[in-house]
Specification:
Length: 264
Amino acid sequence: MDHYWEANGAQDPPAAPTSSQGTYPTDGNLPAAVAPSTPGAWWYHQITEEIRNAIVKLGGVPDLTQVDQLANGLITAIASAIGDVTDPLAAVAYSGSYDDLSNTPAIPAAQVNPDWNASSGVAAILNKPAIQAPLGFTPVQQGGGIGQGTNKVYIGWDGSGLGATVDQTSEGHFVFEAELQAYVANLQSEINNVTGNAWTPNNLQPLTLGGLGNFIIVGSNVGAGNTVSNPSVRPGGPTLAGTWMGCGEFSSGSDTFSLVVRVA
């Protein structure tokens, strides 16, 4: 498009009007004596210049023989603008493919089952709790038996014997077979001394309830070899007739117990 008038064109552009009526065009109404609108030279001039200047601004050269210069100029300009925006974009903007991304983070290997013994790698278990090594023997459970409480039981060597402590109370030493045999032999010797060797393999007296040879535990201090008459089975409890000889004693706090055997 360019300036073109088939006839009666002017060498200079028309002067711009100083004001506008602010109205709209009309075809007029002859019966009502209303004349149609008159565009005037300025209207034709401004329409032509608007289109022509747009072609020039879009980089075209006005050509009065062409009727699509404005359209082609707009298409070229829009394509160029799109290119200015999209050319800096990465290929992923067009493809939408993860493979077209750059500087992607490292993706760990597929999930694996944890390995308790692994010290590194994806199978390693972090912040593992400390596990006690196998004992190598079968432990004995403390408590939990019929009628047993939850008290803590300690068994250990105290320098003179194997003792037991329950919570904070000492229960004394354990008596083993050799010690028991020695106690029995000592008891037999003491009985023989008191009874004049009346108890011998050839002269055994039959045992009767509460009679000679019976053992009881009394709630008093009767030293080994000492004798007591008619002792109480417990403090304030029933008494048993006869003479009883101490075989050993045991104390726990303020309580004292003695094992005695009747000798007369």
